[in-house]
Amino acid sequence: MTELPRLPTSGGCRETPILKQRGQREVFCGLTGIIWLHRKMQDAFFLVIGSRTCAHLLQSAAGVMIFAEPRFGTAILEETDLAGLADAQDELDKVVDELLTRRPDIKQLFLVGSCPSEVIKLDLAKAAERMTQRHAPSVRVLNFSGSGIETTFTQGEDACLASMVPVLPETDDRQLLLVGALPDVVEEQAIGLLEAMGIGPIKVLPAPRADADLGVGKNTVYALTQPFLGDTHDALTRRGARHLPAPFPFGEEGTTQWLAAIASEFGVAPDLFEQVTAAPRARARKAIAQAAEALNGKSIFFFPDSQLEIPLARFLTRECGMEAIEVGAPFIHKGLVGPDLDLLATGPTISEGQDVDLQLDRAKAAKPDLTVCGLGLANPLEAEGLATKWAIELVFTPVHFYEQAGDLAGLFSRPIRRAALLKLEAAE
């Protein structure tokens, strides 16, 4: 290998006009991010300031049994709070005092805003500052919004990580920071590949514990593992850290380009890069080829939901032979997904935001072989005879990097195979 893999310098969809629509939307609640974040941060607790609906959402979505001791909970806003008849700040102080007395293992406490707390303008930033002074240094209290009023569900993680960046210690160390919550086994694979190239030290945000040796400064370079971390990207940049733009590590090509961007920054020799990546790249290509047999030549339509849409469209069109009709995303941050747009061949409509009725009309007219959408649209579209894939499943399933590339392709091939079987049964 004479040089590291390079990105194209022209072509793609980066300059394709974006269809921007603002109307009725169909999105999931940002509190959902707590379900995977509370598993990553072992000494953190997420206290949602919300309604009983918020509590039921988290309990049912996380599948936590009633006698379990999870690292999240809900401070219920009662009628007196919503009507302004009680001092919600005093009530919140009492709840937090009781929580920290009962759970001395908590070292990071996140006050999480919801739709109800935002409607009554409850100042959680003020509350977090007051509680930090009260409980420091044993507990660090931060706040972020998980409300779904103006956001989509993956932005809960973005808001959480962005809230952590300003309080990270300053460091002048030259280091790589991997940003984004991944399943432990996937994170270990990524770090293992990078360390095999001699890259280090490697830090991770979010760290598993508050006392982790994690700082940020002008000598920090960071690579995002998730395409929905726009606010976190901006917060790290304000701290002086430098972003390494790259396609996101979905599939063999995306993973290789992501690793190559980091390898180039740290001066890894092409031969060493080839030595470390050759075997897992070959496994990924083989696994993708097997799963992609049902995908080749099929069309796909993305409703805006998870913000994974653009990197996934790049993967499915380039590595699985699919044709993208429309790629919709809630928000398009070209500083993050620009490299994926560079690789996505021109042709599909690129849309940002949503007027769900108009987009449903376009999907029904196009009759794609597969539609990626939120839970609320899946059943109606299935009733129209369209095969669907739940967007949220792509966030909860390990899909990053080489060893998961075949599983990622399989998530899309299964509903297409199922639709084909149903058609055969109907014809018999």
Automatic annotation (TrEMBL):
HAMAP family: ChlN_BchN (MF_00352)
Pfam families: Oxidored_nitro
Pathway membership: Porphyrin-containing compound metabolism; bacteriochlorophyll biosynthesis (light-independent)
Cofactor dependency: [4Fe-4S] cluster
Residue span, Nitrogenase/oxidoreductase component domain: 29-386
InterPro entries with a match to the protein in the record: LIPOR_BchN/ChlN, Nase/OxRdtase_comp1, Protochl_reductN
Homology family: Belongs to the BchN/ChlN family.
Quaternary structure annotation from Swiss-Prot or TrEMBL: Protochlorophyllide reductase is composed of three subunits; BchL, BchN and BchB. Forms a heterotetramer of two BchB and two BchN subunits.
Catalysed reactions, semicolon-separated: chlorophyllide a + oxidized 2[4Fe-4S]-[ferredoxin] + 2 ADP + 2 phosphate = protochlorophyllide a + reduced 2[4Fe-4S]-[ferredoxin] + 2 ATP + 2 H2O
Protein name as annotated: Light-independent protochlorophyllide reductase subunit N
The protein's Enzyme Commission number: 1.3.7.7
GO BP annotations, alphabetical order: light-independent bacteriochlorophyll biosynthetic process; photosynthesis, dark reaction
Positions annotated to bind [4Fe-4S] cluster: 29, 54, 115
Record-level Gene Ontology MF annotations: 4 iron, 4 sulfur cluster binding; ATP binding; metal ion binding; oxidoreductase activity, acting on iron-sulfur proteins as donors; oxidoreductase activity, acting on the CH-CH group of donors, iron-sulfur protein as acceptor
Encoding gene per record: bchN
Keywords tagged on the record: 4Fe-4S, ATP-binding, Bacteriochlorophyll biosynthesis, Chlorophyll biosynthesis, Iron, Iron-sulfur, Metal-binding, Nucleotide-binding, Oxidoreductase, Photosynthesis, Plasmid
Function: Component of the dark-operative protochlorophyllide reductase (DPOR) that uses Mg-ATP and reduced ferredoxin to reduce ring D of protochlorophyllide (Pchlide) to form chlorophyllide a (Chlide). This reaction is light-independent. The NB-protein (BchN-BchB) is the catalytic component of the complex.
Cofactor note: Binds 1 [4Fe-4S] cluster per heterodimer. The cluster is bound at the heterodimer interface by residues from both subunits.
